[in-house]
Model the fold of this input.
Amino acid sequence: MLNWAARYFPILRVLKQHHLLESGTLLEIGSGSFGIGTFRKVPFTGCDLAFKHQPKWPMTPVIASAADLPFADRSFDVVLASDVLEHVPPNLRKKVICEAARVAGQLVIFGFPCGNIAHDLDKELRQTYLDRNLQVPEWLEEHMEAAFPEPNLFEDLSGWNLVQFGNESIRFHRWMMRSEMNRNFLRVTVRLVRYTPWLLRPLLRLGDGEPSYRKIFVLSKTTA
Done:
């Protein structure tokens, strides 16, 4: 749960900066059954290949491929994809970005573990699971299937201004993911995220730094 907060809180800050935190139509690609609705109680559309659990308000679920979104151009104010692009086959990643930009009217936000240093950290994490005789999570096994995306995927995307920043230092991410192997740590952090998110926000910002595990890319529509 803490790792969800670590990756969504920066996105919430971006939405607030663009006056879209409490209003505006939003599509989350690869949302899973909960997505940003865990932290932003505003109706949104969640798109995924399947939903393991029945999605609940504020999500309206849609089953579809991120590379072929069933929406018209500029259908949403915001299109968001958090820790999704690394699960997409490399030959489709550019297509997913272009589809997100096509259906977005104002803002596109991608966040994902970026580059070799992040990939090496996840290899190390996977080995830690094996050394402790723990089941390796499915998402982590998928991280081993291909190299992580790189910033050059956003080159040549006309009509958009790009801003990027780091999220979670390598050191902080290593500590957090190993800590979440402990059930007591999970119980405590679930309560913190649920009942005192205002306390966690400044603490999690202290975990940002370079080199970073994740990069967040914010595309805002250029004005004519």
Remarks:
- The mean pLDDT is 94.
- The first strand starts at residue 26 and ends at 29.
